Amino acid sequence: MDKPLKNPPPYAIASVDHALRAATMLQMEGGLTVSQVAERLGVARSTAHRLLAMLVYRDVAVQDERHVYRAGPVLELAVHSQSQVSRLRTVALPHLHRLVALLEETANLTIRTGDTARFIAGVECARALRVSSRKGMVFPAHGTTAGLLLLAEPADAELEEVYAVERYRDRPGERPDLAALRADLARARRGGFAVNQDRSERGLVAVGVPVRGADGVALAGVSVSMPGVRYAPGRLQSLVATLPPDHLVKTS
Q: What domain count does the chain have?
């Protein structure tokens, strides 16, 4: 059966349309330069450059050393891991509910794409003073509990690529100090858990552990978040012990 013809929306937004078309071209065709994207979209080179810069900022595209743009981690995730993300969410949700019942604090499941952490599931506790679910939100990976756990896994060369200086040319203030970050990642690697105290948001504390696949690779992070007034360092070991062992949340 032939598909019906699609009419454009009555209030089309040209910039959004251009960005979506550029993302589609990168996903379907591979590497493209600014000039090629500009020509294909029928826009000025400066406009194409701004569109691509925003796609890079949101991890939809990446730029290599030859200034060629390619599909970024978000598009790669959509192509290769959509079913995996769905399985992760389905398998982890019972554990998130268990954590909330035991600890009366909010629990989240998070994945990493590039230098960002994306919250794909969350269960809020019922307390009046609580941390809200972060489901659907995106934060810098180095500023979240799960992000630290997942950044602790790659080799040092990959970490250098994730935080390459050229990727932060337009936002240098957002690039973390790699020496300090490596020290944080070493602690997470040794302990098998990570603590985020006032790192992503003032007054918030989160403790998390990695979620591993059958091959032992960390796929995500499970964390429990609470207001800082309810956290004391003496609780850390009991919180970590309550979090699910990674073998309970394997997806295969």
A: 2
* pLDDT in 10s for each residue of the chain, 252 residues: 444 444 556 655 788 888 888 888 887 677 889 999 998 888 999 999 999 999 988 888 888 777 889 888 777 665 545 567 778 888 889 999 999 999 999 999 999 988 889 898 899 999 999 999 888 788 899 999 999 999 998 888 889 889 988 888 878 888 999 999 999 999 999 999 999 998 878 899 999 999 988 788 899 999 999 999 999 999 999 999 999 765 445 554
**CA separation for the pair 102, 51 (Å, rounded):** 46
Q: How far apart are CA 238 and CA 247, in angstroms?
A: 19
Q: Give me 125's structure tokens.
A: 């506790």
Same domain, 105 and 225: yes
Could you give the CA distance from residue 133 to residue 135 in angstroms, rounded to a whole number? 6
- C-alpha to C-alpha distance for 75 and 52, rounded to whole angstroms: 14
**Quick one: tokens of 168?**
């932060």
Which region holds residue 150: left if phi is over 0, alpha if psi is between -120 and 50, else beta? alpha
Q: Indicate the pTM of the whole model.
A: 0.68
Name the residue range of residue 208's domain: 81-249
As a whole number of angstroms, the distance between CA 198 and CA 230 comes to 13
CATH of the domain at 70: 1.10.10.10
Instruction: Please list the residues that pair with 206 across neighbouring strands.
Output: 196, 225
Q: Vertex 209, ends 205 and 213: CA angle to 5°?
A: 150
Residues 59, 175 within the same domain: no
Helices (H) and strands (E) in the chain, counts: 9, 8
Residue 164 lies in a domain: yes
